[in-house]
Amino acid sequence: MSVACNLCGRDDSETWGRPKDGLRLVRCRNCGLIYVNPRPTPEALADYYRKDYFEGGNYAEDVLRERMYRMEIARMLPWIGSRGRFLDVGCAMGKFLSVLPDTFEKRGVEFSSDAVRHARESFGLDVRVGQLSEVGIERGHYDVVQMRGVIEHLQDPRREVREVRLALKPKGWFVLNQTPDLGGLAGCLYRERHNQVKPREHLYYFTKATLSRLLTEEGFIVRNVWRPYWGTPYAAPWRDFPVFLFNLVSGRECPAFPGNMIAVYAQKVD
Ligand SMILES: [Zn+2]
């Protein structure tokens, strides 16, 4: 199905990069948002996530992921404080919430009922099934709402960001913790070969500019921007830098590289 730009509402886009996985990537001529268009129907997308989407992790990957979560938490605490009501939107199996300090009152929202069952059984977490806009979340209730690696999956990011604002207390924090950034070197040089361009699951691709515009228009102030690479468990500069050059000229996919991902801490106005 064909969709208009989620950021500015226009339906005037040009091809961006080459088709990938049989899907076209376009860039809005008006605001620069990159997105998949046309894209699979909501039914086809639901089907895609039903097929063991959250399975297949192995022990080594889990260890790396947990180290990454600890790093992210250490970085966000000076901004968001170390207590309060924390809502993780798209919390998957609840691993991030399980690592978050218990000084927080934790809650999750997740549309995969299999993942929700796991989050409840393994970690005893309070998780609701569905999209944020569907689950009837409390208004003005949360100190922090996080989306980690989530906004790029959404069918209507603006609608969900609006819901985040409603769920937050005045001056509450919206932590967009990790989404692909196509405004960096890899996005410019590699385009669809950026390692986070996965059109079957990632429908929207932001840059600092497009993400900031969305947040500002929906009543947030961007307080901090982080491009995680250095010091993360996924970074190996002695390997990534030569591979970046080699893969660029040989037509392969981009490795982990500075600027591939972005995290934004935004605060609700008023
Ligand atoms: Zn646009």
- Secondary-structure element string: EEEHHEHEHEEHEHEHEHE
Task: Report the top-level CATH class.
Answer: Alpha Beta
**Measured on Cα atoms, how large is the radius of gyration?**
18 Å
CATH homologous superfamily - what is it?
Vaccinia Virus protein VP39
Average pLDDT number: 95
Tell me what you see in this structure:
The chain has a single domain (60-268), classed as Rossmann fold (3-Layer(aba) Sandwich), CATH 3.40.50. The strands form two sheets. A seven-stranded mixed beta sheet has the order 6-5-4-7-8-11-10, sandwiched between helices. The radius of gyration is 18 Å and the shape is globular. It contains eight helices and eleven strands. It is α/β, with parallel strands linked by helices and 270 residues long. Zinc ion binds at residues 5, 7-8, 10, 28, 30-31, 33.
Question: Which features characterize this protein?
Answer:
Rossmann fold; alpha/beta; binds zinc ion; 270 residues; 8 helices
Quick structural summary:
This protein has 270 residues and is of the alpha/beta class.
Topology:
Blueprint: E1 13-15, E2 25-28, E3 34-36, H1 42-50, H2 59-80, E4 84-89, H3 95-99, E5 104-110, H4 113-123, E6 127-129, E7 142-147, H5 157-167, E8 168-180, H6 185-190, E9 204-205, H7 208-217, E10 220-226, H8 237-250, E11 261-268
Parallel strand pairs: 4-5, 4-7, 5-6, 7-8
Antiparallel strand pairs: 1-2, 2-3, 3-9, 8-11, 10-11
